Amino acid sequence: MRVQLVPPGTGELTYEIRNIVNVAEKLQKCGVTINWENIGDPIVKGEQIPAWMKQIVSDAVMDNDSWGYCHTRGVLKTREFICETTNRRAGAQITPDDIIFFNGLGDAIAKVYGCLKPEARVLMPSPSYTTHTLGEVGHAGTDSLHFRLNPEDGWKPDMVEMRSQIENNPSICAIMIINPDNPTGMVYSKELLQQIVALADEFGLFVISDEVYNNIVYNGETTVPISDVIGSVPAIALKGISKEFPWPGSRCGWIEVYNGQNDDQFRKYINLILTSKMNEVCSTTLPQVVIPAIMQHPQYQDYLKERIALYEKSSNITYNFLKKVPELLVNRTNGAFYMAVAFKEGVLNNSQSLLIPDNDVRSLVESLVNQPGVSPDKRFVYYTLAATGICTVPLSSFATSQQGFRVTLLERNPAETERIYSTLADTIRQYLKSSV
Questions:
Q1: How does the average pLDDT of the chain come out, rounded?
Q2: d(CA 137, CA 419)
Q3: Using an 8 Å Cβ cutoff, are 329 and 152 in contact?
Q4: Which of 118, 120, 134, 148 is least enclosed, having the fewest CB within 10 Å?
Q5: Which CATH number fits the domain 67-295, given the four candidates 3.40.50.450, 3.40.1280.10, 2.60.120.330, 3.40.640.10?
């Protein structure tokens, strides 16, 4: 083309969580049975939506109002309900005008980063969820800036590095966290959040807190929303129903803006996000309408507790199998429904492989892993997928040089969870012994 169409580097960005599905589907055609441990969709893993929840949605469908446009910010009654829920915690206080609905958090994330000037950078965790990384890199047109989550310290953030990055990069305007974290399943403590808010306050930054898994915690952990500790610092919390109800197909999420009037630049920025949303008129009305009725239903909390108990069981089964492999750094997941597992330094190399008797399957995998630039953990993931049908995601695809893999904890049958992760643990041992 006569004109460069995309910013440098962004045309090569990939979304490995979805890309690996294409590979798995090709392997299915070759007769490989796939265990989908790559994507956080409870519905795919057999989650049954209760009849009472379906009835609420069915009733809303019969109301003509659910078929029309809603306010650009979102359905007023729902925003009022969310305000009451947040304000009841006695932290940051908001009004319905501090809430904007989006067609899923992917839409919200695109707007949050896209409305920043390219020179304004957001400091992100590493590893970090791909949608955030792609959104930030896409708006800036250059490599992302990160602070490390340390697998040798329970995936806690390296606060020294966070401060150093802020001091050495005056373009940084915000700190982004995911709490509970994706891909690691780590839950930020109140003390860590307070330290992050203090840094933001010291350097004149705002905070972005992705809290879509905020109510999915276990193993004795509790989550602290950023609104509890934010004080007077400007912030955005991202929330949604895709994981909690769960209704990923609703594409329904929202942002809550805290201290939106405390800084004139931040006020203008939030107004630009709202204006860009006005260009789309509004987000889908139906899922917004049902949020208060579902969350206030007498069976909702018990339903959520049952699901969380299952994730806790899966977390502990997965941890107990994988921790027995000495070459891995394994941390028990305490929130969300993911586990990130790192290989110890130097364990992986590009000569390792697995025995794959089927010629078509072996040819397909070798054509993928022998391409230039394939990371050792991607090679491991593809060989494991072909040999066992267990579909995971290479950790290096989450904006980190750390080699490893991410799995989900959504399998509903504990016996099947045991089979999957005992198989995976054995396969890892075989793979690591194959070095030449």
A1: 93
A2: 39
A3: yes
A4: 118
A5: 3.40.640.10
Distance of CA 410 to the CA centre of its chain: 14
User: What is the C-alpha to C-alpha distance for residues 131 and 129, in angstroms, rounded to an integer?
Assistant: 6
Rounded Cα distance, 307 and 352, in Å? 38
DSSP 46: T
Q: What is the pLDDT of residues 279-331, one digit of tens each?
A: 999 999 999 999 999 999 999 999 999 999 999 999 999 999 999 999 999 99
Angstrom distance (rounded) from CA 395 to CA 16: 10
374: left (phi over 0), alpha (psi -120 to 50) or beta: beta
Would you say 38 and 393 are in contact if contact means Cβ atoms under 8 Å apart? yes
Rounded to 10 deg, the angle between the 130-140 and 105-114 helix axes is 30
Task: Please give the class, per CATH, of domain 10-47+301-433.
Answer: alpha beta
The structure's pTM equals 0.93
Q: pLDDT digit string (tens) for 421-430? A: 999 999 999 9
**Is residue 125 within 8 Å of 149, Cβ to Cβ?**
yes
Q: What is the pLDDT of residues 214-243, one digit of tens each?
A: 999 999 999 999 999 999 999 999 999 999
